[in-house]
Structure formats: C-alpha cells, structure tokens
Design goal:
Blueprint: H1 2-40, H2 60-66, E1 70-80, H3 85-91, E2 98-109, E3 115-119, H4 120-123, E4 128-132, E5 138-147, E6 152-156, E7 178-183, E8 191-202, E9 216-219, E10 231-233, E11 239-246, E12 257-261, H5 262-275, E13 285-289, H6 292-298, E14 306-311, H7 316-320, E15 327-331, E16 334-335, H8 339-346, E17 354-361, E18 364-371, H9 387-391, E19 393-397, H10 400-406, E20 412-417, H11 421-424, E21 432-436, E22 439-440, H12 444-452, E23 457-463, E24 469-475
Antiparallel strand pairs: 1-2, 1-4, 2-3, 3-6, 4-5, 5-6, 7-8, 7-10, 8-9, 9-12, 10-11, 11-12, 13-14, 14-15, 15-16, 15-17, 17-18, 19-20, 20-21, 21-22, 21-23, 23-24
Length: 476
C-alpha cells in the first residue's frame, strides 16, 4: 500500500513537471524568442560597409593610400633684431641683421610632378618654403600662387613620380560619415586621426579678407597646430578637404575642427595653375540668411533660400533681372539655404560663365540666366600682377660705389619710373630701397618675394644719393 502511494505521488510530480515545461514553452518561451529576434534584428540607415573580416570600418587602406602624399611644410621669414646700442656706438654697426623665424604646417601633394596644396596662412609672408616628404627627402618649394579669400596656397617642388591624393567629392559627404585627418601636428610627421563629419557649410568669419569664402566641413577628427594645410580624406583615400582651423578655448584640440571642402580647393588650384591668380566670379548681390527674425520682418512664409538685400550697380544679378527682396533657392539645380552655400556654389565658376538661378518673388518661383562677372565688373580674364607692374619701376641691385658713398650694406635702386605705386607716392629715380615692411632688401629677388606675398599696406624705407633718408607707404 505504501509503495503504491509513493508511485502515485512520483507520477503526479512527473506529470506536473511536464505540464509546467509545456506551459513555459507556449507562453514564456514563445515570448522570449520574439524579444530576442527583435533585439538582434539588423538596422541599416546608410550604405555603411564594414570590413568583411572584422565587422568594423577599416581605416588602414585610406591611411596607407594617403600618408605618403602629405608633407611637412616649414617656412622661414626674416625678422629684424635690435642690437645693443652701446656696441653699435663703439663698433659702428648701425644696421640690423635679419634673423630667421621658422613656421610649420602641412601640405597635400595633388600631382606626381610636385604640386602641393596648403593653407595661405602657412606660407604667407614667408621668405623661403621647405618641404619634407614622408620618405624624409627635403626640397625648397616655390610659391605658385595664393588666395587669401579661401586661405589656400599652391606651392611646387622639383620632383617626379610622387605619391599624390586624388580629388574626392565633398558634395556627397554625409553628416556622420567617417573621415581621416592626415598631417603633421606639432611637426610630428605622418599622423593620422579619425572622426566623423559633424556638419557642413559652416561660416566662421575667421578668414581676414574682404571677399572671404567660407563653407567649412566640421569634423571631430583630432587636429592641432601643424595640421593646417593637411588632408581630410574619406575611407576610400580620396581628398575631400584641406584642414584649416580649430575652435578651442586653450588653443589645443577641443573636439571641433574645420576643413575647406575640395569643391572649393579644385577651382582655386586650377586657376592658380592656369592663370597664377584666382578667376573669381561674383553674382553682384548682398545677401542675408533667411531666419525667423528676417521672416517676421519681411513677412516670409517659408524659411528657405538666401535673401537678396541689395544689388551691385551694373552687377550680374541686377542686369539679369534679379531684385532686392528676392529669395535665391537654387544655382544650376543645387539648393542653397545659407549665404555660405550660395558663395560656395558661385565660387565654382569663372567670370563669363552662365548660371541658372531659381528664386522666389512674392511667393512665386522664377528662373533667371545670369552671366557672372569678375570684381572689376566685366568677364575678362584677370591677370596676375608682378612686382614691377605694381610698383611701376625698373629696379636693379645697388652697386658697391653707392654702398660705399652712402655707408650702406644692401639695397635695390630705382633707375626708371613709370605709372605705378612708387611714382604715385612721390618716389624719384635714384631712390635706394633698403627695407620693405621692416624686412631688409638685399636683392631684386628679395623685393619681388616681399611684394608678391604682401596683402594690405606697404611701408618702404630708403635713401637718396644725396644721403636723405625717406619713407613711403601705400596700399596694395
């Protein structure tokens, strides 16, 4: 009897366990499977392509493809040193010897024959520019041209079969896309950092030029001093920007860096190679961002496009029929929603090019064909001015007889005057230029470099054959 009761109890326990397992599989187990499947369901919003072996984005290809084409740029500028006046009294040395001041940055090789892009602020006012390749070869570079409006410069070294970085397409960059910054921070060569595109079309007001063009790519790739002029590349190793600036309360990297998009770089560099100066097209308008405040003031219903506040008399836009109060929506089919986007689009063209401008006027869409012009108001090619055409003078190096009679050690002499800056300021033939902008002038080549690299005011010191010291100043 007792054994029978034990058997029945054991059978009930087994049946109860089976029922519990069955119920769990129906109610709990089924729900757990659904939850697990939901969590593991892959979600893809972009064309993200992970490395097939690791499952992560692989930067090694882009780094290897670009690191050999980014160079270290060193500059040398002569500054005046002030000597001890007591020693000058006893030894009679009344002239200051130049002392070189060194600067550094980065550059990007864009062709196998040695053309290199860097920032204008890297080479500005430099007397000499030196380039060190990734393989440690060193060259002295020639400045082909500069463009302060975009903070770009083109230099060249005498070399062949160089690694170079092909142009990419900055228009297709997406916010959130991976990019690499390649450069030489603090002169530490061949440095690669990674980040994402944080924003596009940023206007910071940091370029000190009246006709500045700013439409920066913002990234969080680490950029520091010395990275200026270096490459911003995508994961395919294509050039999408030139690293230019950071925003930081301390002066060191703080998570925000900015690059000039390659859409601007290509046009500027092409012009510098072909003409020696940028062929800048302008629309001939003053523009404003369409924000909530302007919309309220002007009764604008939709916050889009760029507002035309004024037109240049005789400018391209006015002659095409565009009016103040119009809202520009597109240039050749490309939408523009900020002043920086509009200036970036116009900067891609040359004077004489025709563009289609779509705009809104009184809530109606209109289209205009506009022939762009240069800063002088016509469609002609702008030529690069040389030092002799700017100064309007024939200048030679001073001879030993003049040096001895005047007690000078260096200088260049004005032997012929024509229409130009010097004659306009009252300079007479025979004047010997000894300094320009506090830089000693030892040769005609020195004068040429100083004039070619000066933007703004020019201050000249010199002496006439009768010993009279004179000073002149003029604007470029």
């Amino acid at each position: 009897m007792k054994n029978r009761q034990i058997f029945i109890s054991l059978l009930i326990a087994i049946i109860g366990g089976l029922v519990a397992v069955f119920a769990y599989s129906i109610f709990i187990g089924k729900n757990e499977k659904i939850i697990t499947a939901t969590v593991r369901q892959p979600v893809a919003f972009t064309d993200f392509k992970p490395d097939s072996n690791t499952g992560y984005v692989d930067f090694t290809y882009a780094a290897e493809k670009t690191i050999h084409a980014v160079v270290n740029v060193k500059t040398q500028m002569a500054m005046e040193t002030y000597k001890n006046p007591i020693l000058e009294f006893f030894y009679g040395d009344n002239y200051k010897e130049p002392e070189p001041v060194l600067g550094f940055g980065s550059g990007v090789i864009i062709s196998p024959d040695g053309y290199i892009v860097t920032n204008n602020h890297v080479v500005d006012n430099s007397d000499k520019v030196f380039v060190t390749l990734n393989d440690k070869r060193e060259f002295e570079a020639k400045v082909i041209g500069t463009d302060p409006s975009t903070d770009l410069a083109l230099i060249k070294i005498d070399a062949d079969n160089l690694f170079y970085i092909p142009y990419g397409n900055s228009d297709k960059l997406m916010v959130g896309e991976w990019v690499l910054a390649v450069g030489n921070p603090f002169t530490i060569t061949s440095t690669v950092t990674a980040g994402i595109v944080s924003a596009k079309g940023k206007n910071l007001g940091i370029i000190q030029d009246r006709y500045r063009i700013e439409s920066f790519i913002q990234t969080d790739a680490a950029v520091n001093r010395g990275n200026s002029g270096g490459a911003l590349v995508n994961t395919r190793g294509e050039l999408v920007g030139i690293n230019t600036a950071i925003i930081s309360p301390s002066g060191a990297y703080a998570g925000i860096s900015f690059a000039i998009p390659v859409s601007i770089v290509k046009k500027v560099i092409s012009d510098l190679i072909e003409f020696g100066v940028v062929q800048r097209a302008i629309l001939g308008v003053s523009i404003q961002e369409v924000n909530a405040e302007l919309a309220k003031e002007k009764n604008i219903k939709v916050l889009e496009g760029v507002y035309v506040s004024e037109l240049r008399e005789g400018g391209a836009a006015k002659d095409a029929g565009i009016l103040a109060g119009d809202i520009i929506l597109e240039v050749d089919g490309v939408k523009v929603n900020s002043p920086s986007e509009l200036t970036e689009q116009i900067n891609r063209y040359r004077p004489g090019d025709k563009v289609t401008v779509n705009l809104k006027r009184n809530d109606k869409t209109k289209q205009f064909n506009v022939v762009l012009r240069n800063l002088q108001g016509d469609t002609k090619v702008v030529k690069s001015e040389t030092y002799d055409t700017i100064l309007g003078a024939k200048i030679v190096e001073v001879d030993n007889e003049d040096k001895k009679s005047l007690g000078i050690k260096y200088g260049v002499k004005v032997v012929e005057l024509n229409a130009g800056k010097l004659r306009a300021e009252g300079v007479r033939e025979g004047f010997i230029i000894t300094q320009i902008n506090n830089k000693s002038v030892y040769s005609v080549e020195d004068l040429k470099k100083i004039i070619d690299n000066t933007k703004g005011g020019v201050y000249i010191k010199g002496v006439y054959p009768n010993g009279v010291i004179a000073y002149y100043a003029f604007g470029m």
